[in-house]
Design a protein that fits this description.
Elements: E1 3-7, H1 27-35, H2 47-54, E2 60-66, E3 75-76, E4 83-92, H3 96-99, E5 106-117, E6 120-132, E7 141-157, E8 163-169, H4 183-192, H5 199-224, E9 227-229, E10 232-236, E11 239-242, H6 243-248, H7 250-254, E12 269-272, E13 280-281, E14 284-292, H8 293-298, E15 301-303, E16 306-308, H9 310-317, E17 323-326, H10 343-348, E18 350-352, E19 356-364, H11 367-436, H12 440-460, H13 469-485, H14 489-561, E20 563-571, H15 581-589, E21 592-595, H16 598-616, H17 624-629, H18 653-664, E22 668-672, H19 679-692, E23 697-701, H20 704-713, E24 722-724, H21 743-763, H22 765-788, H23 790-839, H24 851-861, H25 875-884, H26 887-896, H27 902-919, H28 932-951, H29 968-973, H30 978-1037, H31 1039-1061, H32 1071-1091, H33 1093-1110, H34 1113-1129, E25 1133-1137, E26 1143-1144, H35 1150-1154, E27 1160-1161, E28 1169-1173, H36 1180-1187, E29 1192-1197, H37 1226-1237, H38 1240-1247, E30 1253-1255, E31 1258-1259, H39 1264-1270, E32 1279-1280, H40 1285-1288, E33 1295-1297, E34 1300-1303, E35 1309-1313, H41 1330-1349, E36 1358-1362, H42 1365-1377, E37 1393-1396, H43 1397-1400, ...
Parallel strand pairs: 1-6, 1-7, 22-29, 22-30, 23-25, 23-28, 24-25, 28-29, 31-32, 35-39, 35-42, 36-37, 36-38, 38-39
Antiparallel strand pairs: 2-4, 2-7, 3-4, 4-5, 5-6, 7-8, 9-21, 10-14, 11-12, 11-13, 14-20, 15-16, 17-18, 17-21, 19-20, 26-27, 33-34, 40-41
Helix pairs in contact: 5-16, 11-14, 12-13, 16-36, 18-19, 19-20, 21-33, 21-34, 22-31, 22-32, 23-30, 23-31, 24-30, 27-28, 31-32, 32-33, 39-46, 41-42, 45-46
């Protein structure tokens, strides 16, 4: 007997050490999870017993083996002695005994690896799980064998010492040779047991996706290197004012512009540095990055014809990336070890930024250095002037000195002569003077002397005693006289004369000094004047030299030291625009701006893990690859019988069909749900039905909103225990009503709401019965009145139908004419391009020109240009060279050429040698094998000639334009006739080209006339449609028709209200069906009430008490602590995003630690069904992550809406520079773009059998007029969801503007034709259109004013969708700067959103304004871009419920809006080629709505600006 050896020992009680592994729990834990799914009466006591029931020992039965592992490589153990094949699945044939221990319709599978070690060859089991019994594959290997199980091991002693471990098998003394896992069997398994018919398709897909993952990892690594050192980081207290207010006081505001930069007065929001008048707070973070300007400019390279700096591009790209600022150098070491600093450390010392507001770049000159140069200049001027003054002072001093010396000599001579003359004069008069002694001074001196003599004599001569007085007197007199006689009168005069001479000498000396001083002063002035001009000129020259030096020094300093500063202004990281003083200090301390790669890195890791798990067979469903890659081979599945208990009564038949198929699906189901068709309702009902069957469900999507929508719609039944898993640090966490901490709250809510409903129904039955009957009678009466007038309405509708059919026929004719016009337009474009080719001397027969005509032109021109005469170049280029040279250039160049010079002869020889060298090479510029020697010889000759030419006289002729026209030898030899030759050949060329251009013009005129004729026919037909529409409007506006229609609307509205008031959810097609449902429902309720009246009398009071008790906050609070963990273990609906982490713990979900709940591992909770919403937006690699968590996958989406977007699809040639060419280049990136943007959902939907898919067609979202607009994308298949829907979706707005009624209550679709051109920022690839933005803002203002003045009307929500992100920003700026109020709109639940199409998928509003943006100045040279992406436009047009306003340029949209629309089911031949989608949309709007101009919306002044 063959044995299936199954070993459970290795993982029986031990889980995997790798938490990321799909089967990371022990087998015992896995079995415990399975036991929870098995009815109590079927549960067995132990894991061993369970396995023996399913895989019985010694009992032969069928087993099915499959291998979802596409690696198919045997791996070796560490010792190398054991090999194994991983991820092999064993499924037993479902037997009666198994049914007794398993849930209904379930089977069990084992997952493990086939181990080949010596004699023992077995399956080492690592996973066990339930699977739908219908799941199978025709490619499974079927074996018949008895199981031999091992649940334990024992140690035995070795003959050589030591111990070894062996399995204890359930069959004693079993022969290992009887194993089914023989080498041949394993080989066959590897070679032939595939889950798909074409495994190479999986391999190819894996290889390309793996290549993509490698690129993303590499690119992320490169991106992560992008961090910049900041020169400055600071908080800026800024204020904003709108443009209108700015214009009122521009001069005041201009003085207060933020940082003094004019850039802040550009745009619609003017930003100031201080609060002035009406300015509002607008705080910003400013980051400065400075670079040396010279080095920055030198680093520029030419890309796409422009000089660009790579670093500048990277700096500017910081605006679009996830960035934050930090105080720590990202390249530094971590404080916790030698490893690089972590992101957590960087974030903890940093600040997360908001959106970038503006980037400003400007030059910062080296002010300090320039001021220093000015100071040095002043000093140098002073020094130079002083030196010049000192120099000339010295010269003047020397000359003055010489002059003074000469003059002094003359004066001294004169003085001597005067002294001599005076001395002689005194000497001559001395004798006479002495004789005369008339000098009073001398006389006085003599008298004084006499008195002294007399006194001395008297003193010395004493009177003798005997001597008489008389004698004594006489003797004295004689003695005195004698002494008198001794006085030398002459000496007095000599002394006087000496004194006079000295005095005279002094006078002469003083006079001389005075004269010398005067002379010196005179000479100083004279010589100063003499050298004045020289001094001035020298100072001027010196100043000029210093000025030149200063200028040169400044220029050098400015050139070498000027910095270019990039100031990046970011909004605050806090959405409420709040920043604390502490955070301000953190901002100011930040020195680096860093690329935040954490989210992207985690996403790539999850993608890589999912891809490898799928490829290597780590899957919950072994047949997953069959569903995803060979869906066309699936067997037809029959849905379960239709007697279902529905939880949501409002489902239509198509929705119910979808639910049946989804619940009954054999592993996969696809739901295609166009806008508003109730996809979420289907998902919610499907979840409830799956839960009823004991399944666990994972709800996933790319966005949180889509998951939230499903959770909100889930039926409020106690069986559903939902958990939304969102990390606590995520902003969405604040709104999460399904957080684990609310498990008790939600459970009690579900229980109590049902109880309260029954209580109210019982208590108010009699009252409701009376109201029901009264309202029902009113409805029937209203219907009867309408039926009496039905003939009038029927006749009106019949007339309208005839008009509509006629309009439809005319539209078909217009489409036919447009197709013809397209063909004519293509021919015209070809002829125009051909004409430009010929005019521009482009003679290449390109694909987009009339090639045969270009070839004929070449044939006509080629004989004109002999090889010996003309330069060897392409004919078209030669023509350009000839036509491009002017007469004066010819004359100037001919004057340079000297035929007689040695240099000319050398030039001719050089060219001849160069030609011979070229003939030695092949077409790839490689030297021919037999020409190497000749080539080397010629090369030596060429070098020698070049050296000789370098030393020869004469000008170089290399750059002459004539060289590009003529053979140089011919040019030199025929220099005298060159000018005439060129003139002649030009005339011939013009004549030949003119003949061809005339032919083209003739054909063009014919085609243009044909195009005009078609345009005329189309316009006439459009006028007919317009007339028909007016006729329809006339019918609709007739009073009798309007009265009946209003009555019908009221009846429909009352019917809707009746259904709502009495909680009837069943759908109905028309009023008759609605009334029948009411009658039936009431009959059912009355019968039920009577049948259960006795029972209800007992139950209702109890229900009321229980409901009141469990809704008490105190009870809920207490029970949270007691029951949260228990409810968590019974959770059966989980919600995470597609790329979310699969493991959650108390570290990232607070409630888990709060209620002592172990971590949640989505891989291990036992997910049966994965439902992914909005699936069309996700790529295969992103879908794969959640798909692997379950066994059945339900994909829900609309492949006519947004497809996956590859973020690197717009990379240009130069973006690949510096990157590893083997990992990423232009061609590889094209491959990745195609790979990533393929809508996997669309591919599956087109391939999978009908029993696995459903398309919903009844839309409930919007008014029929709006549906008509986007129904073009569904070939008109969409229908209204319920009777009275149009009445329910009325907007009731009647809006006047500039004297015109622009919005009317009975029209729900509008187009505003705007004339202003688009534009874009220098550092952005996005676009905006200010004219459209102003129209949008003015519409919002006017609508808000209207609702405010009509408070009786229902408040409506509003949203603005823009096809470009910059347009959304522009609209937001205008709304803020112009202080446009939105308080009259409904904003409590549905806030006003201004965003892009991508952000709006899955969302909706009552009023949607769509700005298409595109209107380039040169439409013919523009790429229409997003307006041709029909999925995006479909999303944008289908978000409105009551009113849709398109804003755009009609002419551009209609001319460029031509698409190829594939069939929704992928049917060949059903696609719409050259579908003029915008013409159809505009035609629909004209038919059912209104087309207006921008001037109808804007004020007169604004309209003039925009016009």
């Amino acid at each position: 007997m063959a044995y299936l050896f199954l070993s459970f020992t290795d993982r029986l009680n031990n889980g995997s050490s790798f938490k990321s592994e799909l089967y990371n729990q022990s087998l015992t834990e896995q079995f415990e999870n399975i036991q929870k799914r098995i009815p109590l009466d079927r549960q067995v006591g132990s894991f061993t017993s369970f396995i023996e029931e399913c895989f019985p020992t010694n009992m032969a039965k069928k087993y099915y083996l499959s291998c979802p592992n596409f690696l198919r490589e045997k791996e070796s153990s560490k010792s190398g002695r054991v090999q194994y094949l991983d991820n092999v699945v064993v499924r037993p044939e479902l037997s009666l005994s198994m049914r007794r221990v398993l849930p209904d319709n379930q089977n069990i599978i084992l997952i493990g690896k086939i181990v080949e070690g010596g004699k023992k060859k077995h399956l080492e089991v690592k996973g066990i799980q339930l699977i739908d019994s219908t799941m199978s594959s025709p490619n499974d290997i079927v074996i018949s064998a008895a199981a031999c199980n091992s649940f334990a091991e024992e140690k035995r002693s070795s003959l050589y010492g030591g111990t070894f471990t062996i399995n204890i098998w359930s069959v004693p003394h079993v022969d290992y040779e009887d194993t089914v896992f023989t080498p041949n069997f394993v080989y066959d398994l590897i070679q032939s047991c595939w889950t798909v018919s074409k495994p190479e398709q999986i391999r190819q897909s894996y290889n390309i996706w793996n290549k993509y993952i490698e690129f993303r990892k590499y690119y992320l690594q490169e991106q992560s290197k992008r961090n910049f050192k900041l020169d400055r980081s600071l908080f800026v207290s800024a204020y904003a004012v709108n443009r209108k207010d700015y214009k009122k006081n521009a001069s005041i505001y201009d003085e207060c512009l933020l940082d003094g930069r004019d850039e802040f007065k550009w745009g619609d929001m003017i930003v100031l540095s201080e609060k002035v008048e009406e300015a509002e707070e607008f705080p910003l973070i400013r980051l400065d990055i400075e670079r040396n300007r010279k080095a920055f400019i030198e680093a520029k390279v030419t890309k796409r014809g422009k000089l660009v700096n790579e670093e500048e591009i990277k700096i500017r790209s910081l605006s679009s990336d996830n960035v934050f600022i930090t105080a720590i150098d990202p390249k530094s070491k971590s404080q916790y070890g030698d490893k690089q600093v972590t992101f957590s450390e960087l974030l903890n010392s940093g600040y997360s930024l908001g959106d970038r507001f503006k980037i400003v770049s400007y030059d910062i000159e080296p002010t300090e250095h320039l001021e220093e140069l000015d100071l040095n200049y002043t000093r140098d001027i002073d020094k130079s002037y002083k030196n010049i003054d000192a120099k000339y002072e010295k010269i003047i001093k020397e000359e003055v000195k010489q002059a003074i010396a000469s003059y002094e000599k003359e004066l001294n001579k004169q003085a001597k002569e005067r002294m001599d003359s005076y001395r002689n004069e005194l000497d001559d008069s001395l004798k006479q003077d002495v004789l005369e002694n008339k000098d009073k001074n001398i006389i006085a001196l003599i008298e004084k002397k006499k008195k002294e003599i007399e006194a001395n004599v008297k003193k010395n001569i004493k009177k003798d005693k005997k001597e008489k007085d008389k004698d004594y007197e006489s003797r004295l007199k004689e003695l005195i006289e004698k002494e008198y006689s001794k006085i030398d009168v002459k000496s007095y005069y000599v002394e006087r004369n000496d004194a006079l001479l000295q005095s005279n000498a002094k006078n002469i000396e003083a006079e001389t000094k005075k004269l010398l001083a005067q002379y010196e002063s005179k000479k100083n002035s004279e010589f100063t004047n003499k050298y004045k001009d020289d001094v001035r000129n020298e100072k001027i020259n010196s100043k000029e030299d210093l000025d030149i030096k200063l200028k040169a020094d400044k220029e050098k300093a400015i050139e070498e030291e000027t910095s270019i500063r990039f100031s990046l202004y970011f909004r605050l990281g806090d959405t409420n625009n709040v920043i604390s003083d502490k955070q301000k200090k953190v901002v100011e301390a930040c020195e680096y701006i860093v690329y935040d790669n954490r989210a992207e890195k985690a996403k790539i890791t999850r993608q890589e893990t999912a891809l490898n798990n799928f490829y290597s067979g780590y899957v919950k469903n072994p047949y997953l690859s069959t569903y995803l890659f060979n869906p066309e081979e699936l067997d037809t599945v029959k849905a379960e019988p239709s007697d279902w208990l529905w939880y949501l009564d409002s489902l239509n038949e198509k929705q119910k069909e979808a639910v049946r198929k989804a619940v009954s699906s054999n592993g996969i189901f696809l739901l295609q749900g166009p806008p508003g068709t109730g996809k979420t309702q289907v998902i919610a009902e499907t979840v409830a039905q799956l839960i009823k069957k004991g399944k666990k469900v994972l709800i996933s999507s790319e966005t949180h909103k889509a998951i939230d929508n499903v959770f909100e719609r889930l039926p409020k039944i106690a069986e559903i225990v939902p958990i939304r898993l969102i990390p606590s640090n995520n902003d969405k966490k604040k709104e999460n009503e399904y957080d684990p901490k609310f498990l008790v709250d939600n459970f009690y809510l579900n229980v109590s709401s049902n109880m309260k409903k029954q209580v109210n129904r019982y208590k108010n039955f009699e009252k409701n019965k009376l109201e029901f009957a009264e309202n029902f009678d009113k409805l029937k009466l209203a219907k009867a009145k309408i039926e009496k007038s039905q003939k009038v309405l029927a006749k009106a509708n019949e007339d309208i139908k005839k008009f509509e059919e006629k309009a439809k026929d005319i539209s078909s004719k217009i489409s036919e004419l447009n197709d013809k016009k397209d063909l004519v337009r293509i021919d015209i474009d070809i002829l125009r391009r051909t004409k430009r080719h010929i005019e521009n001397d482009n003679l290449r027969p390109d694909e987009d020109v009339k090639a045969d005509l270009v070839v004929d032109l070449r044939k006509k021109l080629e004989p004109l240009f002999e090889k010996e005469v003309y330069a060897d170049c392409e004919l078209g280029q030669l023509l350009k060279n000839i036509n491009g040279i002017k007469n004066d250039e010819i004359e100037r160049e001919l004057a340079v050429i000297n035929p007689e010079s040695n240099r000319t002869a050398l030039e001719i020889k050089r060219r001849e040698i160069k030609a011979k060298m070229d003939s030695c090479k092949d077409e790839f510029d490689d030297i021919l094998p037999n020409k190497q020697e000749e080539y080397d010889s010629l090369r030596k000759q060429l070098i020698a000639i070049k050296k000789e030419m370098d030393t020869s006289e004469g000008s170089s002729t290399d750059d002459l334009k004539l060289n590009k026209i003529f053979n140089y030898s011919y040019l030199v030899a025929n220099i005298s006739i060159i000018q005439e030759t060129i003139r002649t050949i030009k005339d011939i060329i013009i004549e030949i080209k003119s003949s061809f251009i005339e032919l083209l013009n003739k054909d063009l005129r014919s085609l243009e006339e044909k195009q005009d004729s078609l345009d005329s026919d189309i316009s006439a037909l459009k006028q007919q449609i317009k007339n028909i529409n007016e006729s329809i409007i006339d019918i609709q506006e007739r009073n009798d028709v309007k009265d009946i229609q209003e009555a019908k609307y009221k009846l429909e509205n009352d019917l809707i209200k009746f259904f709502k008031d009495f909680e009837i959810a069943e759908p109905y097609k028309d009023v008759d069906e609605g009334l029948k449902i009411i009658k039936r429902k009431w009959s059912e309720l009355e019968d039920d009430f009577q049948a259960k009246e006795k029972e209800n009398k007992e139950k209702i009071p109890m229900y009321e008490k229980i409901a009141n008790y469990i809704t008490s906050e105190d009870v809920i609070e207490e029970d949270r602590k007691v029951f949260t963990k228990d409810l968590f273990e019974n959770a059966n609906v989980f919600g995470i995003t597609c790329t979310s982490n699969d493991r959650f713990s108390g570290r990232n979900v607070d409630a888990l630690s709060e209620y002592n709940i172990d971590e949640i591992d989505i891989k291990s909770v036992g997910i049966d069904v994965v439902i992914i919403d909005e699936v069309s937006k996700s790529s295969f690699i992103d879908l794969l992550i959640p798909i692997l968590y379950g066994k059945t996958v339900i994909l829900v989406g609309d492949h006519r809406q947004l497809p996956p977007m590859y973020e690197f699809s717009k990379l240009r040639d130069d973006d690949f520079e510096g990157l590893d060419d083997s990992i990423i280049n232009k061609e590889i990136n094209k491959e990745f773009t195609s790979l990533y943007e393929e809508c996997f959902f669309k591919t599956l939907f087109e391939k999978i059998p009908d029993s696995y898919k459903t398309m919903l067609v009844q839309q409930y979202r919007c008014h029929e007029h709006i549906m008509h607009v986007f129904n073009h994308f569904y070939k008109g298949e969409l229908k209204l969801g319920f009777a009275g829907q149009n009445n329910n979706k009325r907007h009731n707005v009647k809006l006047l503007s500039n004297g015109r009624n622009i919005i009317e209550p009975d029209k729900h679709i509008y187009f505003v034709d705007c004339k202003q051109n688009e534009t874009h920022e220098a550092d952005s690839t996005s676009m905006y259109n200010t004219g459209e933005a102003r129209v949008v803002v003015e519409l919002i203002r006017k609508l808000n004013t209207y609702f405010k003045s009509h408070p009786e009307l229902e408040k409506l929500s509003i949203g603005v969708i823009c096809t470009y992100g910059d347009q959304a920003r522009k609209v937001k700026e205008l709304l803020k700067s112009e202080k446009v109020k939105t308080d009259a709109f409904k904003t409590d639940v549905e806030k006003m959103i201004v965003s892009t199409v991508d952000d709006f998928q899955g969302d909706e509003r009552d009023i949607i304004i769509l700005s298409t943006v595109r209107n380039p100045e040169n439409p013919n040279r523009s790429n229409p871009g997003f307006i041709l992406a029909y999925q995006r436009i479909n999303v944008a047009l289908s978000r409105a419920r009551r009113m849709l306003v398109m804003v755009g340029n009609r002419k551009y949209l209609e001319e460029k809006g031509v698409i190829d629309l594939p069939d929704a089911y992928g049917r060949v031949g059903k696609e719409q080629r050259n579908f003029r989608v915008y013409e159809e949309i505009l035609s629909t709007i004209e038919r059912y709505g209104k087309v207006i101009e921008d001037i109808d919306v804007l004020d007169e002044k604004e309209a003039r600006i925009n016009g």
